[in-house]
């Protein structure tokens, strides 16, 4: 292990923010599960047995934190540490033999890419995993993460598979712009249910139909009616007897004004 690892600012910040999830130790522990190119089987429960098995914490939450900050890549049945070769140098027999998981990982990646559609982006050919440009799902989750931190002051731990599936389903009914607007409304809401249940993507999905962004109706200024129109409408509202009395009074007033 290189001394530079202990000066890794991001990992230390994450450990300070999530001391009970041990992200720095887990990240180092994952190296022991990698082949010489940095690939490892994505089996959180099995990995927990080999990395800090006697500490009581959610290994999946720790993986989610490392994924969120691009320290890991997860696709298909395998994970990948992009900076693995910067930390580790594999020599001896393992260094001479083909990587244990790399070929299977690339096949798993390609299979997932085929199922999801044409694969986007270009990675290092023959090495590593291809990283696609930010998709509408990722952009939406990133916005949710940002709004959550601004509202609560805490980091939202993204559950990549579960939250991603929820956001993808919502984007099947709403445009990305509409979804972003409802996310903003969700964090502005003072609804007691949301406050009690928590501001998670799951709760957001359950309330999304209530979070319609209100449109401001234009204010139309009322043009005052001309006096003669008002007099005509007033006259129509009077009974014949009252109208006669009103006309007599009006004539007297006009006559008096003319005399003066």
What does this structure look like?
The chain has 260 residues and is mainly alpha-helical. The chain folds into three domains: 3-116, no CATH class; 137-210, no CATH class; 227-259, no CATH class. The chain contains 14 helices and three strands. The protein has helices at residues 9-17, 23-31, 44-50, 59-68, 84-87, 92-96, 102-116, 136-152, 160-171, 176-188, 192-197, 201-207, 227-237, 240-259; strands spanning 39-41, 73-75, 78-80. It has a three-stranded antiparallel beta sheet, with helices on one face. Strand 2 and strand 3 (78-80) form a beta hairpin. Helix 8 crosses helix 9 and helix 8 (136-152) runs parallel beside helix 10 (176-188). The radius of gyration is 34 Å and the shape is rod-shaped. The termini are far apart. Residues 110-133 have low confidence and may be disordered.
Number of domains: 3
Relative strand content: under 5%
Uncertain parts: 110-133
Helix-strand makeup class: mainly alpha
Structure summary, number of beta strands: 3
Number of helices: 14
Indicate the radius of gyration in whole angstroms. 34 Å
Looking at how many chains there are and whether they match, the oligomeric state comes to single chain
Strand order of the largest sheet: 1-3-2
Average pLDDT value?
77
Mass-distribution shape = rod-shaped
What's the helix-strand series?
HHEHHEEHHHHHHHHHH
**What's the end-to-end separation, in Å?**
111 Å
The largest β sheet comes out as:
3 strands, antiparallel
Helix content: 55-70%
């Amino acid at each position: 292990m290189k001394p530079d690892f202990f000066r890794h600012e991001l990992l230390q910040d994450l450990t300070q923010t999530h001391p009970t999830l041990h992200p720095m130790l887990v990240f180092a522990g994952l190296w022991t599960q990698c082949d010489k190119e940095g690939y490892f089987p994505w089996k959180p429960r099995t990995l927990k047995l080999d990395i800090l098995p006697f500490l009581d914490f959610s290994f999946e939450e720790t993986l989610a934190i490392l994924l969120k900050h691009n320290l890991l890549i997860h696709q298909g049945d395998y994970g990948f540490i992009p900076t693995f070769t910067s930390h580790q140098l594999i020599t001896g027999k393992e260094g001479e033999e083909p990587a244990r998981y790399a070929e299977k990982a690339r096949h798993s990646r390609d299979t997932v890419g085929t199922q999801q559609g044409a694969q986007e982006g270009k990675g290092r050919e023959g090495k590593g995993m291809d990283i696609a440009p930010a998709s509408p799902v990722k952009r939406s989750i990133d916005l949710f993460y940002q709004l959550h931190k601004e509202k609560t002051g805490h980091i939202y731990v993204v559950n990549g598979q579960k939250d991603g599936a929820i956001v993808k389903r919502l984007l099947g009914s709403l445009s990305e712009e509409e979804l972003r607007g409802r996310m903003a409304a969700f964090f502005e809401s003072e609804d007691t249910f949301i406050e009690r249940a928590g501001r998670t993507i799951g709760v957001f999905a359950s309330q999304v139909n209530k979070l319609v962004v209100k449109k401001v109706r234009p204010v139309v200024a009322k043009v005052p009616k001309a006096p003669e129109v008002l007099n005509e409408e007033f006259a129509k509202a009077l009974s014949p007897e009252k109208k006669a009395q009103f006309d007599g009074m009006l004539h007297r007033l006009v006559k008096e004004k003319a005399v003066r």
